[in-house]
Design brief:
Elements (H helix, E strand, L loop, with lengths): L2 H5 L25 E2 L2 E7 L5 H15 L3 E5 L10 H14 L1 E4 L14 H9 L3 E7 L12 E7 L3 E11 L2 E7 L2 H17 L4 E6 L7 H15 L6 E6 H10 L6 E4 L1 H15 L6 E5 L4 E5 L17 H13 L3 H17 L13 H11 L1
Parallel strand pairs: 2-3, 2-4, 4-13, 6-11, 9-10, 9-11
Antiparallel strand pairs: 1-2, 5-6, 5-12, 7-8, 12-13
Helix pairs in contact: 2-9, 2-11, 5-6, 7-8, 9-10, 10-11
């Protein structure tokens, strides 16, 4: 979304792009708006969620952004918050736009299902978009990294269909459908066109899962033929090779589209390439709803409550949300200031090799507005 704000910070070789710089505005109905103010559902999440969403609220208040929050302090630490989770879901359905941190999901078999996944499935926010881009003021091992990860959000290994057919024997079902493969692939090609991208890569494991991933790959190839006249090129790559190629030569990737589980893995690799989860924004969109959250889904319980978290990913995700609502000038201002703080390198949180606190980073963003 905030292309103009990024352009002044990007290397001269190509314009910088971010999620909102053209993801399809596919909502059938407009977000809830009363008297010129948008009502947005806010779910801070677990771990560092409260701290980094507080940064967003502080910045929004400073710029007088026309946003009214409906906040729900849902926690995935225990299943006792299920009623509050249902209330938050009703709010999202009512407001159509949300900003959230990451909700903890227990590993224990007796624990509740992932509420993060439940949100995506119940709202059918089928497209996860994460942008991994090198920042001039925060050099990493690889320079010039700039690719988008488009992840199918609602099926695959995350379908949640498991059972024990015999003691010691568990069957976990991976659901793949042509309809959902088709819509996520089209989303990826449309995203590439709207953001002046040149190539779309399909990530799969069709050499082993010949039916499931074979369906995804064949659908990709069929859709790709329809976009040939647009000038876009396309290829496909097995997921294990993709992982190696990402850390060896990430510049070969532009837009990547893949099933659910591979997207979770690749987004973490991508975040590591450009500096970590603290600077990678993201979003989930569907035909009716849009939910914005950091692109790398980490709770970070280890630094919870220490005021050491990097709020940049959440701030940038929030500016994408502003773009989605048509508040471009405010989004430009906040995004430009955030990238300015990172590029100056004077205020850096621990994950970026510095000693600044979450509060310090937030205050510097506000100072630069």
């Amino acid at each position: 979304m905030f292309r103009r704000a990024l352009a002044s910070r990007a290397p001269p070789s190509r314009s910088a792009t971010t999620l909102a710089a053209g993801f399809p505005r596919v909502s059938r109905r407009l977000p809830t708006k009363y008297g010129g103010v948008y009502t947005v559902t806010l779910i801070p999440g677990d771990g560092i969620g409260a701290e980094i969403t507080d940064s967003v609220k502080e910045i929004f208040e400073h710029v007088n952004a026309p946003i009214e929050w409906e906040q729900y302090d849902v926690s995935g630490v225990s299943s006792q918050g299920e009623s509050l989770f249902r209330e938050a879901m009703e709010s999202l359905k009512r407001n159509r736009v949300g900003l959230k941190g990451i909700l903890f999901t227990p590993i224990s078999q007796t624990g509740h299902i992932s509420w993060n996944v439940a949100m995506r499935q119940q709202l059918d926010i089928y497209a996860s978009v994460v942008l991994c881009k090198s920042l001039p003021g925060f050099p990493t091992r690889h320079k010039g990294v700039d690719f988008a990860i488009i992840r199918e959000n609602t099926e695959g290994e995350y379908s949640g269909l498991e059972h024990q057919s015999y003691p010691g024997v568990v069957e976990s079902l991976k659901v793949s459908t042509r309809a959902k493969a088709d819509r996520i692939v089209r989303f990826a090609f449309d995203f590439a066109l709207k953001n002046n991208r040149k190539k779309v890569t399909c990530v799969h494991k069709a050499n082993i899962m010949k039916l499931g991933d074979g369906l995804f790959l064949n659908t990709f190839r069929q859709v790709a033929e329809e976009y040939k006249s647009s000038g876009l090129t396309f290829n496909d790559m097995i997921v294990d090779n993709t992982s190696m190629q990402l850390v060896a030569r990430p510049s070969q990737f532009d837009v990547m589209v893949m099933p659910n589980l591979y997207g979770a893995i690749v987004s973490n690799i991508g975040a590591a390439l450009v500096g970590g989860p603290g600077i990678v924004p993201g979003c989930n969109v569907g035909r009716e709803y849009a939910l914005f959250e950091p692109g790398c889904r980490h709770v970070a319980k280890d630094i919870m409550g220490t005021n050491r978290a990097n709020p940049a990913a959440m701030i940038l995700s929030a500016t994408m949300m502003l773009r989605h609502l048509g508040l471009d000038s405010i989004a430009d201002s906040i995004a430009s200031s955030t990238f300015g703080v990172i590029n100056k390198g004077q205020i850096r949180t621990a994950d970026m090799g510095g000693t600044a606190s979450t509060s310090d980073f937030t205050a510097e963003v506000i100072k630069n507005l």
